[in-house]
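Task: fold both queries, return tokens.
Query 1:
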Amino acid sequence: MTFRNLMLSVLLTLFLSANLSAEIICESQKGVIFCYNRPEKAKSTTADGRKAYIESLIKDTARKYGVDPELALKVAKIESNLNQQAVSPKGAIGVMQLMPETARELGVNPYNLEENIKGGIAYLKYLIEKYNGDIDLALAAYNAGPSAVDRYGDIPPYKETINYVRKIRGSVPAYRGSRIRKVKLPDGTILYTNLPYTGATR
């Protein structure tokens, strides 16, 4: 018996001893043998398979939480491009870019793919309910934080946030109401306006 076949036998024995009813799938990639007891995991080792698995996981989780699966998927793609290894300059982690403190509040491990997605969608669901189904405000809060949305009572006049909502929703109303906002300009000037101003500072 070759060393490769011996290792395969050992791996199969370990898998079967852990779960006798498991369906074991083994495949060889570039000389490395991978064995799985879940079919979708076998597909997830390739880039396309991994992406398909993550997309499926996002949609399934969204359905469980009563969130539009396509909306959840768009958020994940904008946030991290479905990259669980992505970490933002501000420290947001994984596929749906959870901040460590948010993850702690949600009781999930942001470094675990499944928990990260679960936490991100649970948080999105919370924001949708907080803003009474207003998807634009929920998305703005996911990007800029609920405190910013609450402070302005609308989509915060930040270029990043406005573009974020626009990318996911396709468009953002240029005018959402007559509320007068106090906006601090980069040079310190205070501006009162009822229109979004993309040069505002946070």
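Query 1 returned. Query 2:
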Amino acid sequence: MIRSVVISALLAALAAVAGCASTPHDAGWITLLDGSKPSTMDNWIQNTEPNWRVEDGTVMADSRAGKDSTFLVSKNSYSNVEIRAEVWVTPDTNSGVFFRCSDPNKISAKNCYEMNIWDTYKVQYYATGSIALFAKVDPVPKAGYKWSTFDITADGAHLLVLMDGKQTVETNDSTYASGPIALQYGGGIVKWRKVQVRPIIH
């Protein structure tokens, strides 16, 4: 009996230590969008047609009235930051995470960095996992029909993208310094489960 109590106590202590060890990695993240918490939509502006909706624990879009992409644009701007996004798409989905956007009223790859999510994009080296116009991806990872987690680091001129923990691109560029984040819908189906940011403090 005493032995089992001691073993249980040791296991509990080890679990507590493991929990504490994971805390620094998870600390500092700010949730901007959570499909299970519709109130987080208040952190964003729909700067075009209101085709985004909360459904089944996600924030999704699957249609648009016009021909142009629609966006959710964060109300806050970010400079040096980590971005983590959990997303589900179809292979034909045209989506992406735009960051450091210089004009929040006219989002495009010509005034933001765009981490592209588009498996079937005709220019494959700027398909899923790339930073369009700035960092080519090779090989091209596929995001269609599954949940993926993208981690973007923008730290000064250093730009890094991970997809499910694996690096897709890394580059240095200082074209854009600061601005809001924008989530794109340009076709197919896109579902965002969670989007978080963690400011980088030097």
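Both queries returned. Flag for query 2: The first helix runs from residue 2 to 26.
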